[in-house]
């Protein structure tokens, strides 16, 4: 039947392998990751990783701490670079804050449950 | 948490949009909305000539029917007011079927036309402007339309519809513009079965329209073969909810991981790796094939993570089909869609930064 013929037709056959020049396969570099970690009891920790260089993470941390009324630190990780670490589950608040202050929502990835 | 949901929505919209485009073709091919219409449906669906997506679209047509109602806007240009008039009736029929449930008589026809459009207004505020401009245009073109009306031989179909005619024609325009953005809202009303003997044209002396017959055809088709409906556009991909138990105070047991993995056609290792990376914990699989996760988790939380897993690693990004294969080549995972044949790489699972929790003395690096 012609439907099946249509199905087997590959419209991108002459495009070559779309992943042939995939330099950034699986790259996570351009995302801001917001993660959560469980601590003892019902305590949690929120980490923000991959903040673009043009933002001052120290100032951002200060703003976070004030805005969310929580404590937090700046952790230097040899692989991940500077990571903002906040007490409690601040994921939704962080992403709302970042979006409000002009970051693209598509660059923010919220992880965790 | 919320990131999964918005991902779904635009995708659905896109899919519908695609369908609308496809549907346009059969209509364009033979635009006579009157009696020869049923044959044209048959030819397109059976031979599958103008339907590109294969059998699925044919049945999604059913779901799309109301959307189609206002869709073939290009035809407006080609075929005069006869076509417009037919189309104008259709939205009111569907409104009758699904939304308002108030019986629409001919006197109600004009308000009924307005109703769906105001509903659309709520969805898209920016569309409003477009609408207004087109309405203005309607006013300007009134004369032209009236001329066309006289020219068209079948113009005097329904007497009471002659008055609001030009408006309706332009509202069709608008509908089409909105369909480009959100056919989803209208498609929701779609699969209203037309009961035999309940067709709206039986009560009035007007002719049935192409769209009505189309809906009727698909209603009877699906009534005869329910299997077609379930395998087509309205199909829902369901997975059993994860079963979570607490083991002791600090561990959760995810009992039906293997079942869920089997349902998704994914390796349990991959799923488990993703779960651990996302939730920032560790765990192990016990003898009975259950997953023991460190930390307290609820079913809802696991469900969220699984949902995100499906968006990322199971559903095809192109056609939204969950019928995909995940293969690993040169340390990179590729997802190949069984339904549409697309193939793309997927992100590697990365756990990212893990903060120090617990005692430092237990941790060498800390």
From TrEMBL, chain A:
Disordered: region residues: 1-21
Top-level taxon of the source organism: Eukaryota
Domain SUI1: 32-102
GO molecular function: mRNA binding; translation initiation factor activity
Pfam families named among the record's database cross-references: SUI1
Residue stretches spanning the membrane: none
InterPro entries per the UniProt record, alphabetical: SUI1, SUI1_dom_sf, SUI1_euk
Keywords assigned by UniProt, alphabetized: Protein biosynthesis
Keyword Protein biosynthesis in annotation: yes
Keyword rRNA processing in annotation: no
Family: Belongs to the SUI1 family.
Entry function: Probably involved in translation.
Annotated protein name in UniProt: SUI1 domain-containing protein
TrEMBL record, chain B:
Organism: Hypholoma sublateritium (strain FD-334 SS-4)
Gene3D superfamilies linked: 3.30.30.170
PANTHER family tied to this protein: EUKARYOTIC TRANSLATION INITIATION FACTOR, EUKARYOTIC TRANSLATION INITIATION FACTOR 2 SUBUNIT 2
Any one GO CC term of the record: eukaryotic translation initiation factor 2 complex
Entry keyword Kinase: no
Domain of life: Eukaryota
Region feature Disordered, mapped onto this chain: 87-128, 152-201
Listed name of the protein: Translation initiation factor IF2/IF5 domain-containing protein
Bias (Acidic residues): 156-165
Alphabetized UniProt keyword annotations: Initiation factor, Protein biosynthesis
Family classification: Belongs to the eIF-2-beta/eIF-5 family.
InterPro entries: IF2/IF5, Transl_init_fac_IF2/IF5_dom, Transl_init_fac_IF2/IF5_N, Transl_init_fac_IF2/IF5_Zn-bd
